[in-house]
Write a structure and sequence with these properties.
Blueprint: H1 4-13, H2 15-32, H3 37-56, H4 63-68, H5 70-95, H6 99-109, H7 116-123, H8 128-154, H9 158-161, H10 164-191, H11 193-202, H12 206-221, H13 226-256, H14 261-272, H15 276-284, H16 292-314
């Protein structure tokens, strides 16, 4: 009989290869397509399923446990919701003038990852369990803070790009409803063996579901990429600079807080890894979003996946020889 746990571990360990394979195959398919209507119409259903199975992996019942790790949690929040926004505002202000590009980049870079960051943190010798327990808080806080950050940076321009109706519709049906269904499924899994089996099987799907979303988005966007290529080249330096600076910020603040080495690595991974595909439905709710916003969001995803290959080797060595605690 298939070992679900081993299969899930194999999918998670090979997810970067799976994602890049999906991207390459999607690019080949897009070249052969003459239209993108079918692909565009499939984006939201694929996103809804991906977000449901992603949220299903977020241990909502462990929210109380995360609140007990006070020093780690405060450091995590300071890194992701104070220092990282300052970095993002500086990068966006320096590199970008177009409000649409600023909006797309901020949607991505201001939202800390709640899913595969745990796997990468584990591979990078970080305290993945502590990070996993904190993911519900990261999800809640980013959804509360995103509108405030966008208003602060874009000012009056935010009303021109974010219409309340479509934005709220996307949030409710593509984020709130999948999150609610995930919570119900988790409760069912605790009460019934059949529920646990269903949850275990669904636990196999986050990586394939994410690959499917990448595939569909690229098939939909690539044929229209001409007008978006200039935007991609404009945001690329922002993403590269972010990939280099953000883990250093996370590590620095964690060491200042005197966290253990493994916990400090977790902060570094969290600061560096973003929630790109989770905020994609919010980006698609922006009028005229396609192809520019999906293109620059997928670009960030690809830069990040390459960066994670570096992080799991480099961050894993940070703090070696310093003992359990160290200060900069």
């Amino acid at each position: 009989m298939m070992n679900i746990g081993k299969l899930r571990d194999a999918l998670e360990k090979n997810q970067i290869l799976i994602y890049f394979t999906a991207v390459i195959v999607a690019a080949a398919v897009a070249v052969l397509l003459t239209g993108t209507t079918a692909a565009e119409s499939a984006i939201n259903p694929a996103l809804a399923f991906m977000l449901f199975v992603t949220f299903l992996q977020v241990p909502l019942a462990e929210l109380g446990q995360a609140l007990k790790q006070v020093r780690f949690l405060i450091t995590l929040l300071i890194a992701n919701f104070l220092l990282i926004p300052l970095l993002v505002f500086a990068l966006v202000g320096f590199f970008l003038e177009d409000p649409m590009l600023r909006l797309g980049v901020m949607l991505v870079l201001l939202a800390p990852c709640i899913d595969y960051v745990v796997t990468f943190a584990h591979l990078g010798r970080a305290d993945a369990r502590l990070l996993l327990a904190s993911t519900p808080i990261l999800l809640i806080v980013q959804m509360v803070m995103l509108p405030a950050y966008l208003s602060l940076m874009l000012g009056s321009d935010v009303g021109s790009y974010v219409e309340v109706g479509p934005f709220l519709h996307a949030f409710v049906w593509l984020i709130a409803v999948p999150l609610l269904l995930a919570g119900v499924t988790q409760l069912f899994a605790k009460k019934r063996d059949s529920g646990k089996y269903i949850a275990d099987v669904l636990g196999l799907t986050p990586v394939p579901a994410t690959a499917l979303v990448l595939f569909i988005v690229i098939v939909a966007v690539l044929p229209q990429l001409g007008p978006a290529m200039e935007a991609v080249w404009q945001v690329l330096p922002v993403y590269v600079a972010y990939a280099v600076i953000s883990p250093l910020i996370g590590w620095w603040v964690a060491r200042r807080a005197k966290l253990e080495v493994s916990s400090s690595r977790s902060i570094a991974f969290s600061a560096a890894t973003r929630n790109s595909l989770v905020v994609l439905p919010l980006a698609l709710a922006v009028p005229g979003a396609i192809p520019v916003l999906p293109a620059i969001i997928v670009t960030q995803t690809l830069v990040e996946l390459v960066s994670e290959l570096v992080y799991v080797r480099v961050i894993a060595t940070w703090g070696d020889g310093q003992g359990k605690r160290a200060d900069i």
